[in-house]
Specification:
Layout (H helix, E strand, L loop, with lengths): L2 H9 L6 E7 L5 E4 L10 E3 L3 H9 L1 E3 L5 E5 L2 E7 L4 E6 L3 E4 L2 E6 L3 E4 L5 E5 L2 E5 L4 H7 L10 H8 L9 E3 L3 E6 L5 H5 L16
Length: 206
């Protein structure tokens, strides 16, 4: 967390939190509610200012309830999550990076695949969903436990939902077994809240 943010938190400790204005999409883009929004039809626009994006990335974390937020000075801006708290990019050289630090390799402890063929990675920074632009690379990197390439027929069955992963692994820093997991279990299993709400009795902002 930036030192200037810590100083602002100490100076103004009771600033109301903000909900429903910031979103993390499935490709790791930050989106903010447009001034043209209406309660019935909210519109979110992608942020393009690199300095602002980097500032959000450096000051992005979760509270004890699994609600992820951007600490904007003394104010917490809670984030709506499209998939998971983090978004991962997979590089052809065999390493993974999160949207908050795209040039820094992270070491996942597990690889998951849900019923929609959405890959996820368990990391020290929280659960990360794979950017869909890297799905083809993910499939190309899959191997059997002995290191051999899966048969094309097996991959076709997997892609159509007609096969389990069996003993498939993803070779990153180590060969990680690909585990199947229902998407409905992810939030509870990994302790995150995709649609954070204010606590009862607390005056916050929407």
């Amino acid at each position: 967390m930036d030192e200037i943010v810590k100083a602002a938190m100490a100076k103004w400790p009771n600033v109301p939190n903000v909900f429903g204005w910031l979103k993390l999409d499935a490709r790791g883009n930050w989106k903010v509610k447009s001034v043209r929004h209406s309660p019935e039809n909210p519109v979110f626009e992608r942020m393009g200012n690199r300095a602002v994006i980097d500032f959000i990335n450096r000051n992005y974390e979760a509270d004890s309830q699994g609600r992820w937020f951007f600490q904007n000075g003394p104010q917490r801006v809670f984030v709506t999550l499209e998939h998971a708290p983090n978004v991962a990019r997979l590089h052809a050289q065999g390493w993974l990076a999160l949207h908050t630090a795209p040039a820094t390799a992270v070491t996942p402890s597990a690889v998951l695949l849900d019923e929609n063929l959405q890959p996820y990675f368990v990391t020290l920074g929280g659960l990360a969903s794979l950017d869909d632009r890297d799905f083809g690379l993910f499939i190309d990197m899959l191997r059997h436990a002995d290191g051999s390439m899966p048969e094309e027929a097996l991959l076709e069955r997997l892609l159509t939902g007609n096969a389990a992963t069996g003993a498939l692994v993803l070779p990153l820093q180590a060969s990680l077994p690909v585990q199947l997991v229902p998407s409905a279990e992810l939030a509870q299993r990994f302790g995150f809240n995709s649609h954070p709400k204010p606590e009862a009795g607390v005056e916050d902002c929407y």
